[in-house]
Amino acid sequence: MKNFEVNSLFPVPFYTSEVELDLEDIRKRIEKLARYQEGLNDSNGYIYPKNEQLFGRKEFSDVKNEAKKHVDRFMREVLKYDYDDSFFACSWFNINEPGSHHHRHYHPNSIISGVIFITNPHNSGHLLFNSPHQRDIILEQKKGSVDTPFSSGIFSPRQEVGCIALFPSWLEHAVSKNLSDENRLTIAFNVFVKGHIGSSHTLTYCEVGG
Ligand SMILES: [Fe+2]
To answer: What pTM does this model have?
Structure first.
């Protein structure tokens, strides 16, 4: 057999782009909010608000609008989803203090999740995604061997300051330990759709408010 081809079956869509935002100003707004906000969760230096609707705050409307632009582009142009509108079910800031990390998790009650990297000091931790096929990987790769999308169980995307990443909410991820002496700041959000979706003809019709 001289030639062969390999197809990627059922790939997981992962979107990244750059945001047009004043990141330094956003950093100040987050730190101000964190200083005065009550009811913050603190899990060993990983700090995030409870039930926060960050995008419901007027001072974060620029971030909301920018995030929505990317969300709708991803869902309509890449995933080809047909829906009336999207909305942010939750939106919040994360502060990873030195020494903190965030355990492996996913985001229920959400279709698309996203993160915007506001600050990312050197060695302050990485967002790591776990392959849903991780348990199916038969041969463990040796250290230093070349990773491919078919053999790697973990993916760490480009996460430069000013980038946005969007992914299906069911995809498990974690944040590695912040080994720097500075805080790492991100904004995260969950997205759902609203309006009329599906069809009564196929028994999939659903009307969602938002
Ligand atoms: Fe998360």
So the answer is: 0.92
The whole-angstrom separation of Cα 67 and Cα 150 is: 30
| The pair of three-digit structure tokens given for residue 147, joined into one six-digit string | 């990773």
Span 54-64, pLDDT tens digits: 999 999 999 99
H helices of 37-92, in order, are 61-72
Q: Per the domain annotation, does 135 fall within a domain?
A: no
Neighbours of 44 (CB within 10 A): 11
Rounded Cα gap, residues 49 and 57, in angstroms: 13
Longest dimension (CA), the chain: 68
Q: Ligand 1 centre and the CA of 199: distance in Å?
A: 31
What is the number of domains present in the chain?
Answer: 1
Round to whole Å and give the CA distance between 51 and 158. 28
**What count of Cα atoms within 13 Å lies in the side-chain half-sphere of residue 160?**
5
d(CA 165, ligand 1 centre) in Å: 11
pLDDT tens digits, 13-29: 999 999 999 999 999 99
Ligand 1: centre distance to CA 106 (Å): 6
Residue 12 CB neighbours (<10 A)? 15
Residue range of the domain that includes 38:
15-127+154-208
CB burial of residue 191 (10 Å; 0-12, 13-18, 19+): buried
Is 29 within the bounds of a domain?
yes
Question: What is the distance between the alpha carbons of residues 62 and 66, in angstroms, rounded to a whole number?
Answer: 6
- Domain CATH number, residue 163: 2.60.120.620
